[in-house]
Design brief:
- Helix 7 packs across helix 12 and helix 8 (186-203) crosses helix 9 (208-228).
- The chain is built from 12 helices and 8 strands.
- The relative contact order is 0.09.
- Strands 3-2-1-4-5-6-7-8 form an 8-stranded mixed β-sheet, sandwiched between helices.
- It is 49% helix and 14% strand.
- It has 281 residues and is α/β, with parallel strands linked by helices.
- The protein has 2 domains: 11-171, Rossmann fold (3-Layer(aba) Sandwich), CATH 3.40.50; 186-278, ProC C-terminal domain-like (ProC C-terminal domain-like fold, Orthogonal Bundle).
- Helix 6 (152-162) links the parallel strand 7 (140-146) and strand 8.
- The two termini are 37 Å apart.
Length: 281
C-alpha cells in the first residue's frame, strides 16, 4: 500500500460475504476508512461478527429490510458483493438512493460493466473488480476496470481502497476474465500443487505434520525469495538446479509432463467458463 494513500470517504459493502468481509478487514487494518464503512448481510448471524469494529456499521437485512438503501444513501463508494444472479435486482433496489457522486464497484464475477450501467442512473461511475482470496491476509491481486463514466479520480479512489488488501492491476474490461484465470483462480492452482507435493512427501515416509511443514514452507520460502529478488523465476530455478544433480533430474520429469501446455489448457478452460457465466450459462 503506497505510503501517501489518502483517507477514504464513506463506503458501503452490500453483501459482505467472504470477499467483502476480507476487504472490510483490510480497510479496518489500514485506518484509511475515516468516513466509516457500512456493511449489509441477509442474516443477523452473518452481520453480528462484523459489528463492533472501529468505524463499522453492520446491518442485518432480516432486522432492517431497507438496510441496503440506507447503507448506500450516505456512501461515496458502494461495493456490490452479492451473488451475480442477484445483481440486477439489487441495483434496481438501490438506484433511487445513490448519491450523485457515488462510485459503484462490482465484486460480482461475470457481471459486465454494461449490465451495471444499463440499470444504474445515466452517468453513474462504475468499476469492475476481480480480487482474489489472499485479500484475507492483505496479499490480494485485484484486477480493476473502469466503466465509461468513471473518471481517473474515481479510479484512483477505488484503487486506493483495494490497495488496503494487496496489489492492484488496472486492465481494460476485455481482459478482466483472462485476469481471473490467472490471479483469480490462481490460489487454487497453488493449493493443488502444495496438496500433491504433500502427498509425495507422505509417500516417502514422512509424517503428515512434517510433510505439511516441508511442502508449505518450501512454497512460502520460494515465493518470499522471488519477491525479494530482482531476477525472474526461470533464473532462480536455474540457480537451484545444479548440472547433473538431483533437482535437474526432477525438473526434467516435470518438463516431460508438458506443464507449459497443462497450464495453458487449464487457464483456457477457466476463461471459457468465465465467458459462459458472463453469457448467463
Amino acid at each position: 500500500m503506497p505510503a501517501q494513500t489518502p483517507a477514504l470517504p464513506p463506503i458501503a459493502i452490500i453483501g459482505a460475504g467472504s470477499m467483502g468481509g476480507a476487504i472490510l478487514q483490510g480497510l479496518v487494518r489500514s485506518g484509511l476508512a475515516v468516513g466509516g464503512v457500512t456493511v449489509t448481510n441477509r442474516t443477523r448471524a452473518k452481520a453480528e461478527p462484523l459489528a463492533g469494529q472501529p468505524g463499522v456499521t453492520s446491518i442485518a437485512l432480516e432486522d432492517q429490510p431497507d438496510g441496503n438503501s440506507r447503507a448506500v444513501a450516505s456512501a461515496r463508494i458502494v461495493l456490490i458483493g452479492v451473488k451475480p444472479a442477484m445483481v440486477p435486482e439489487l441495483l434496481s433496489e438501490i438506484t433511487p438512493h445513490l448519491g450523485p457522486d457515488a462510485v459503484v464497484v462490482s465484486l460480482a464475477a461475470g457481471v459486465t460493466i454494461a449490465t451495471f450501467e444499463s440499470i444504474l442512473p445515466a452517468g453513474t461511475s462504475v468499476l469492475r473488480s476481480m480480487p482474489n482470496t489472499p485479500a484475507v491476509v492483505g496479499l490480494a491481486v485485484t484486477g480493476l476496470s473502469a466503466g465509461t463514466a468513471a473518471t481517473p479520480e474515481d479510479t484512483a479512489l477505488v484503487r486506493a481502497l483495494f490497495e488496503t488488501v494487496g496489489t492492484v492491476i488496472e486492465v481494460p474490461e476485455s481482459q478482466i476474465d483472462a485476469l481471473s484465470t490467472i490471479s483469480g483462480s490462481g490460489p487454487a492452482y497453488v493449493f493443488l500443487l502444495i496438496e500433491e507435493f504433500l502427498k509425495a512427501a507422505i509417500g516417502k515416509g514422512f509424517s503428515e505434520a512434517d510433510a505439511r511443514t516441508m511442502a508449505e514452507q518450501t512454497f512460502i520460502g520460494a515465493t518470499a525469495l522471488l519477491a525479494a529478488s530482482d531476477v525472474d523465476p526461470a533464473e532462480l530455478r536455474r540457480q537451484v538446479t545444479s548440472p547433473k544433480g538431483t533437482t535437474e533430474r526432477a525438473v526434467a520429469v516435470l518438463q516431460d509432463a508438458h506443464l507449459d501446455d497443462v497450464f495453458v489448457r487449464a487457464t483456457d478452460a477457466a476463461l471459457e467458463r468465465a465467458r459462459e457465466l458472463a453469457a448467463g450459462a
